Amino acid sequence: MPEPTRRAPSGAAALRADKTVAIAEAVLDELAEQGYGRLSMEAVAKRAGVGKSALYRRWPSKQHMIIAVVSELSVERLEAPDTGSLRGDVLALLRSVADWLTHPRFSRIFPDLIAEAHRDPALAEALARSVGEPRRARAVVVLDRAVGRGELPPDTDRETALDLLAALVYWHVSVRGVRPDADYLERTTETVLRALGARPAA
Q1: What is the DSSP letter of 6?
Q2: From the CB of residue 52, how many other CB atoms can be counted at a distance below 10 Å?
Q3: Which of the chain's termini has less CB crowding within 10 Å, N or C?
Q4: How much of the chain exceeds pLDDT 70, in percent?
Q5: Has this prediction a pTM greater than 0.90?
Q6: Which SS3 state, helix, strand or coil, does residue 87 take?
Q7: Which residue ranges of the chain lie beneath pLDDT 50?
Q8: Which residue, 130, 161, 129, 124, is CA-closest to 144?
């Protein structure tokens, strides 16, 4: 006997893409205005013009919702540039980090999330897994490509190099509160290349 055709439960509702976008925007706005600790599902639903059930159909908790939205914004803002040279790639990466950290909303969200992560190990782990690791995976492609071109030695410490690529711009923006200009990014690129022992492509 042929198997009966399976039908979706009559109560199931499709997750509309436009609603998901509206919710994501509401999450970012609430995070920027209220911070992680004071953000509520009720406030996000009201701002997005949906019921709370629309949020819970997508994410099981507030933390899952925030991590999903923040990771999408953060990871999509970092591509693995391929300019043909390590210098060009490093400069492009530094610009990307600077744009990410100075994003109108994210520049208010990121410091708050980092502070919360110091108090909440589960949040720290989720941020590392969903934001930090994917961004580092994209950046390591640049380092591997440079090794292949002979611009970096094969034994280059990838972890230290990745820290270096982000650390200087992060300190400049998030600790000193200074927006990096083109000259700063050019000088920082040269500093990074010297620290990595970069050489002309073979």
Answers
A1: P
A2: 13
A3: N
A4: 92
A5: no
A6: helix
A7: 1-13
A8: 161
